Amino acid sequence: MNLAAGNKLKKILSDNKSGSSEILLKLINWCKNYSSDKKTLLEMINASNKELKSFPAVQSFIREFKKVIETKGDSQIIVFLNEQTKRIENRYSNLFNNSLPILKDSERIVTLSNSKTIIEILERLNKLRKISVVVGESRPQFEGRIMAKELLKNKIKVEIIPDVLLLDAVEKADAAIIGADFILLNGNVVNKIGSRSLAIACKYLKKPFYVLATTDKASNKKKYFHEKRNGNEIWNYNHKFLTKTNYYFEIVEKKLITKVITG
Questions:
Q1: 210 lies in the same domain as 169
Q2: Span 111-139, pLDDT tens digits
Q3: What's the 3-state SS for 96-132?
Q4: What is the domain range of residue 83?
């Protein structure tokens, strides 16, 4: 793999601010640039298997793509990649159609972090009628700021707040929605840290809490275990009596979720 391709791939694989759908789209677009180089594509598959093993949508794409690389010609590779992009767009459309009857009366919506899926749904909903969105900034990486910027580009009214104010935001909201990095076999959802607190706030205040997920987010896993991340992202300070705990993802139990909407 040449240096430029490797650096671009490394940036995608180390992306800790985008949701799994957006990472998958970035990976597909990267592959389109090197569609005639099967060796490079296979190196991508090996690297992605290692770095993105937690994302079922990415793993499903990799399994299918590997078969295409090994059995098809260059022209069929680009056809496959274009079909994958179209499939993702169709999933967003299906998800929106399934979400609309449930969200049609929600004018003030709370969410958090950065999710391509949630951005797509909110943008389409705002075209039908004007909504306002409260976004939790999602420390320590502040992914919520990324989502806020994307929504503002589409002239959606946005209020960004620190995560500790999500309870207050829920009290004034019609509903809260989040995406999903994946859904476990038991119906529990794995998503960015803060999702569980948001769900508990909705439960306490009797507000609906919806998970919006495309069908490729379904996982065959029964359990999820926390993966510890760099504690210096929280506080770049060290002391022998200090422990720094930093997780990116957590489980939201099925009993806290009003409805998982898929498409």
A1: yes
A2: 999 999 999 999 999 999 999 999 999 99
A3: HHHHHHHHCCCCEEEEECCCHHHHHHHHHHHHHCCCE
A4: 3-90
User: Which residues are annotated as catalytic?
Assistant: 181
Residue carrying structure tokens 């919506």? 109
Specify the number of domains making up the chain.
2
State pTM to two decimals.
Answer: 0.91
- 32 located within any domain: yes
Q: How far apart are CA 255 and CA 263, in angstroms?
A: 21
Question: Residue 226: its pLDDT value, please?
Answer: 87
